[in-house]
Each structure stands twice: as structure tokens, then as C-alpha cells.
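Lecture 7 notes: from sequence to structure.
We start with the chain below.
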Amino acid sequence: MLHRAALFASAWLVFAAPPAPLAAQEPDPARIAAAKELMQAAGVARQFDEVMPLLTKQIADSFVVLAPDKSSEIREVFGQLAIKFVDRKGELIDKIAEVYAEKLTAEDISALTAFYKSPAGIKFIAVQPEIMRRSVMLGHRWGQALGREIDEEARRELKKRGVDL
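Predicted C-alpha cells for the same chain:
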């Protein structure tokens, strides 16, 4: 009897639940093209150009740790791969442009593109890498300091409760 009641409740939930939302419609191709123009104006493609060598260097470094005596061969291979795969950024740009087109109106995209092409936007693009580097550094330092404070306070509180670490 209990099994039958659980089965009935499950069936009721399935049929009484609202239908799942329909899949999002394909964004307008003109809006996707405008989003790609926005990404170009904002310097997104250049950012990917900077990321690929860093990514391949990190992976190469991890390979060198495994075979330090083969470091020159490993670095040569990864240097070639960085060049080979940098052109793949178009795949990601296409996907991100779809997200921009989905989340922003044509008017939003146009206004943002105009901003990035303006003197203030051009300056923002120029200083953004330095802002990001310094922000990461500041965030890292802040996180370390906060982590130490949390560690110290947790140890004090635990010691009060008889847990000495």
C-alpha cells in the first residue's frame, strides 16, 4: 500500500509539474555579427592571443617536471602547439558572441561597441591588462591575509572549546 501511494505521488508530481521551458531560440545572425564586432572592439580576440602562450607554457612546465632532461624538446613541441591552436580562438569567440547576442539587445551591443571605439573605451582597453594584473595580485594578497585571520580566529575559538591544534 505504501509503495502504491509513493508511486501515485511520483506520477502526480510528473503530470502536475509545469512543463519544462522551451529551448532558447537561436539568436539573430545580425545580432551575433554585431556581438563579434563588439568583442573585436573590446579587444577580446587580443586577450585570447595572450592567453594561449600562457596556457601552453603552464602545460609545458608540467611536462618538464615529469621529464626535466627533455625540456628543450618539450618546449619546442609546445611552442608549435601554441601557434597551431591560437587559431582555434574563433570557435570560442563564436560561442561567446552567441551569449552576448542572447543576453544583450541590439541597442546594448551597439552602445557598447561605440563605447569601446570611443577615446575613453580605447584608453580602458589599453589599461585593462594592467588593471587585471594588479587586481589579481591584490586579490591574492587579500585572500592570503584573510585566510591567515580566519585560521588564527578558528584556532583561538577551537582552543576555547578544548581543541588545541
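Points to note: The two ends are 54 Å apart (CA to CA). The helical segments are 2-16, 29-41, 44-66, 71-86, 89-103, 106-117, 119-160.
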